Amino acid sequence: MSAIAIRLLETPEEIALVEDLQRAVWPGSETEIVPAHLLITVTHNGGLVLGAFDGERLVGFAFGFPGLEMLPDGPRLKHCSHMLGVHPDYRDAGLGFALKRAQWQMVRRQGIDHITWTYDPLLSRNARLNIAKLGAVCNTYRRSEYGEMRDGLNAGLPSDRFQVDWWVNTPRVQRRLARDARPVLGLDAFTAAGIGPLFQVETDPAGWPRPPREWGPLKDRLTLVEIPSDFYALKAADMGLARAWRFFSREVFETCFAAGYLVTDFVHSGGRSFYVLVDGQATLDD
């Protein structure tokens, strides 16, 4: 693999490549593909389509556009980052981080300080990138955000999503994106501080993690919420168990967010994955 180059995509020829890449990233349903004509319209009206190239081959992309969020004192401009995709042959090579960093730079130049996007909270790889490495935070859970999805990765489950907030000008985010960024924390850093999980996960006879029948109560300022480390593999092996995790995690996160908790970090350690939630008014400078 040669050096990866990231650049804005603006021509019809370049943007047509994004259609094909979407089919590789989310196979199985042509109806889920964002067409080139819409992507071109977005780029001509303040949006961004970024491409990562290995030579002449498009191997990753990010797509977003300006949007409005409604606040008590009126509408406020934000950037809605709608899609980020990396070709399966190039995953775990840092391309997602590089694309988001390029997006961060360009959105800041537009004078926008807030980026939002959604992702499935049960996907450990996505959580590690979005929360631990990029410094996004979350206290918004959206049930069945996209209705019934028919692509090979999402079919069969409610399309529940986290909506994350990326405050691009905060010291927290700037430090996470720095070349000498802090290492991603391990579980031992939290256990040494006496921070434990909100519930205990056991494995079933096939070795898959199973959500507990009961959990809680919420009582600590910081707590850990465990999710399966490879949800796609779990789903492929046992759809019933995947659905159990969807509805259990929905209850946990909705309850936590309603009680004032905020997702501020993510830990993947020893084959296990945990969100870190903070109670109360969290600081974005950490």
Can you walk through the features of this model?
With 286 residues, this protein is of the alpha+beta class. It has helices spanning 12-25, 36-43, 95-109, 124-133, 171-177, 187-191, 231-237, 239-258; strands at residues 4-8, 48-54, 57-71, 74-86, 114-119, 137-142, 161-167, 202-203, 209-210, 222-227, 261-269, 272-279. Strands 1-2-3-4-5-7-6 form a seven-stranded mixed β-sheet, sandwiched between helices. Strands 10-12-11 form a three-stranded antiparallel β-sheet. Strand 11 (261-269) and strand 12 (272-279) form a beta hairpin. Helix 1 (12-25) packs across helix 2 and helix 7 crosses helix 8. It is globular. The protein starts with a strand and ends in a 7-residue tail after the last strand. The mean pLDDT is 93.
Q: Could you outline the blueprint of secondary structure elements for this entry?
A:
Blueprint: E1 4-8, H1 12-25, H2 36-43, E2 48-54, E3 57-71, E4 74-86, H3 95-109, E5 114-119, H4 124-133, E6 137-142, E7 161-167, H5 171-177, H6 187-191, E8 202-203, E9 209-210, E10 222-227, H7 231-237, H8 239-258, E11 261-269, E12 272-279
Parallel strand pairs: 4-5
Antiparallel strand pairs: 1-2, 2-3, 3-4, 5-7, 6-7, 8-9, 10-12, 11-12
Would you kindly provide a brief summary of this structure?
This protein is an alpha+beta fold and 286 residues long. The chain has 8 helices and 12 strands.
**Low-confidence blocks of residues:** none
H-E string: EHHEEEHEHEEHHEEEHHEE
How many β-strand runs?
12
Shape: globular
Helical coverage, percent range: 25-40%
Strand content: 25-35%
